[in-house]
Amino acid sequence: MRVLIVEDEPYLAEAIRDGLRLEAIAADVAGDGTTALEQLGSNDYDVAVLDRDIPGPSGDEVAQRIVASGTGMPILMLTAADRLDDKASGFELGADDYLTKPFELRELVLRLRALARRRGHPRPPVLEVAGLRLDPFRREVYRDGRYVALTRKQFAVLEVLMAADGGVVSAEELLARAWDENADPFTNAVRITVSALRKRLGRPWLISTVPGVGYRIEPMPACAGEPRG
Predict the structure, then answer these.
(1) Which of 72, 75, 71, 78 is nearest to 62 (CA)?
(2) pLDDT band at 125 (very low <50, low <70, confident <90, very high)
(3) 178-219 pLDDT tens trace
(4) What are phi and psi of 98, to 5 degrees?
(5) Helices (H), 1-104
(6) φ, ψ for residue 199 (rounded to 5)?
């Protein structure tokens, strides 16, 4: 899941972003309405978390623009305004959920996941290839019936690779889909994560490197030798 946090209090925005990342939710931050609209126009998000009282176009105006776009992106309004009238006006603007400050991060995570499920299929399809079985809903991976414990980032990378159905996925695409906009494209984050993922999955190796192109899941895994890249 990737969310946009529109919040003009830097410390709160950073705390939310960092907390969501620990829950395997990629999060970008916009401190004002203008930046929020720019990011919404250039990135795909599963949910928008809007503070109503922000500089530039207000959170209400951003919500109206999201609704008018027809994307169906869920909106969670996050604000200190807790009167019933405030909540009613938020829902009338198109909000799908409303959480008042202060709040527990765990509750925000639960609400975000519920909104993301509601937007699409309640249970995303189980992916299966080369003896691997990945269940996105239960967040479980099995290889030939054996449970494989993965970190959140390893799980996200494996899900992208399996969804490619044997196709090659570039490092840039993995960064865009499994990380967020703050990921440094010049780091070795993808290579290191893929290398660790290979070891978790075990032999014979399932993930191959296509030099200069990217990575792919091998339908017929290699039986010998160390993987390159």
Answers:
(1) 75
(2) confident
(3) 876 666 666 788 999 999 999 999 989 999 999 989 999 987
(4) -145, 120
(5) 10-22, 33-42, 59-69, 84-93
(6) -65, -35
- In this structure, the number of other CB atoms found within 10 A of the CB of residue 37 comes to 18
Beta bridge partner(s), residue 169: 215
SS3 134: strand
Dist CA 9 CA 216 (whole Å): 41
What lies within 8 Å, CB to CB, of 229 at 6+ separation is 191, 194, 209, 211, 215
**Residues whose CB falls within 8 Å of the CB of residue 8, separated by 6 or more in sequence, listed in order:** 31, 32, 51, 53, 54, 55
What is the rounded average pLDDT of the residues 155-181?
A: 87
Distance CA 128, CA 142 (A): 9
Instruction: Please state, in angstroms and rounded to a whole number, the distance separating the CA atoms of residues 101 and 50.
Output: 12
Q: How far apart are CA 182 and CA 226, in angstroms?
A: 31
Query: Given this model, what pLDDT does residue 90 score?
Result: 83
Peptide bond into 204 cis (omega under 30): yes
Has this prediction a pTM greater than 0.85?
A: no
In 3-state terms, what secondary structure has residue 51? coil
